[in-house]
UniProtKB/TrEMBL annotation, chain A:
Residue ranges of every copy of the 4Fe-4S ferredoxin-type domain listed in the record: 42-74, 76-105
GO MF entry, a single one: metal ion binding
Protein name (Swiss-Prot/TrEMBL): Fe-S-cluster-containing dehydrogenase component
Protein species of origin: Desulfocicer vacuolatum DSM 3385
Domain of life: Bacteria
Any single Pfam family the record assigns to this protein: Fer4_11
PANTHER family the UniProt entry points to: PROTEIN NRFC, PROTEIN NRFC HOMOLOG
Keywords: 4Fe-4S, Iron, Iron-sulfur, Metal-binding
Keyword Cell inner membrane carried by entry: no
Source taxonomy: Bacteria, Pseudomonadati, Thermodesulfobacteriota, Desulfobacteria, Desulfobacterales
TrEMBL record, chain B:
One Gene Ontology MF term: oxidoreductase activity
Name of the protein: Pyridine nucleotide-disulphide oxidoreductase
Residues in FAD/NAD(P)-binding domain copies: 1-281
KW ATP-binding (keyword) present: no
Swiss-Prot/TrEMBL cofactor(s): FAD
Amino acid sequence: MRFITMDIKKCVVCRNCEYACSFQHTGDFNRADSNIRVAYHDDIKICLPQTCMHCEDAWCMEICPAAAITKNEETGAVEIDSGRCAGCKMCILACPFGNIHFDKSNLISRKCNLCKGEPQCVAACISGALQYVTAGDSCRNNREIFQRFMATLHTPL
Amino acid sequence: MQLVIIGNSAAGLSALEAFRKRDRTSPVTVITKESTIPYSRVLLPYYLRGKTTFKNLFIRSEDYYSQMGATCITDAVVKLLSEKQTLILENSAPVSYDRLLIATGSSPVKPPIPGLEGKGIHHLWTLADVENLMPCFKKGKSVVVLGSGFVSLQGAWAALSRGLDVTVVELLSRIMPNALDDHGAQILTASMKQSGVDLRINTRTLKVEQTHDGKLKLYFNNGHDLVSDFIIVGTGVRPNIDFLEGTGIEVDNGVVVNHHMKTTLPHVYAAGDVAQVPSTFGGPCVIHALWPTALETGRIAGACMAGENISYEGSLNMNVTQMFGITVASMGKFMDVEGAETWTDKTLSHGQYLKILMKDGVPVGATCAGGSELVSTLGLLRPLIREKISIQGDPAALKKMLAQNMTRYHQAYGKGASCAL
């Protein structure tokens, strides 16, 4: 299983990943159509590309009332079947990271699908911040890591 | 150990799957009074609107039950004999259980309005209802929707999308009292009216008459009576508990359960719309009658019936839909209450609305109306509401807070734990 990882020290907010994602999925360069979004907070000097974590027990997958979200056994990607999605937005409400977006032209939800194992955001990353790596121990159990992450929210910065 | 599940919608399916994850061998019987292939109630209005296909309504495969190692009986449960641990069915032989899950859901109720029965009176609740409604959904026809909850308005939106004349009648002074606050309701009301819905609030239906040309005449308290081709009644639901009469099971508004979804009868569990379950805010048990709660409570029941000792973290109500051109959503406590601070996003453009309610810095609920991007903010809030985590500073900084914490997380766990956490 492979994951997209990111080294925040390297991201320079060039937004190539956003353009590459948009082009891959829509054939056009429109940042609003990208599934990866670089959150840039200049006041605190943080740039953070955010895209689907492909959670182990994905909340979006459990909640989808159309059974449109499944895990791709080959790539490990949590994928939305655009033929089944009815556009109810329950997955957007369920995602704790805000990583599912709404496709305004087709009126359905959309999210990262790891480009069938060749993520274009990674291919277009100029700084090496985004990598597509084989899962190591550190990200084997997303759920457990997620819980540890939620616990960090308690601690003041 | 013989497990019996009554019901094959969200709670029943979720329980069966959670049970099978832990117990692959014990026999399971599912009893359903509907079609054997499970379908999604949530999608029914979308199907009426033409947004999804009939085929897509079915959310499990035809051989689902054999794959799950379960037997499916299509029949209605007439009675529970709890001392004999047996269910009496309408047409089939009695079924015995070692553990039983009541996931019978709820059914729509009709308000006591004379004449509100017979030809042309519909609900929008089951697949059968929708199959009855579909032939009525023809351009140029007229429909009156009684009630203005989520399902009613989705029905109204579907009818409007198909070119019908739509009137929505609400007894109260505003729409969606259980899912939106006053301001959100105002925004939705404006777009409903703009879309061409004849919305009548503060209106009581006195009686309904069949006219001689096959239509329905509705009489209202304000005298603005009208004639319509058909009526959709969406004025609330009640849990399906008739078969429990005489068992002594504790019933309040629904079957009362504890954090393990156990009812007061031995070996009997309940989940979904029929169950009155613990709330995430503590206090008395609640019936949210929502898809997410049904899935969660089903999952807990399934695990507990397989012998695992897990507890439900409590139901958190959450709703979202897009209709009449705007997206509305709510979660947790979204009505202004005393002792809670209300924060609204002042940076949003006209027609966009986001409100977060907090108690001592801890978010307890939120609601939004406008574009779909707002919904993802509610998604970010959900773990904070559930885990009672305070927002450090202004809720406007919510996304920044997430970014900061993720950054700290990345720093702590190195780049290997990055985007994929």
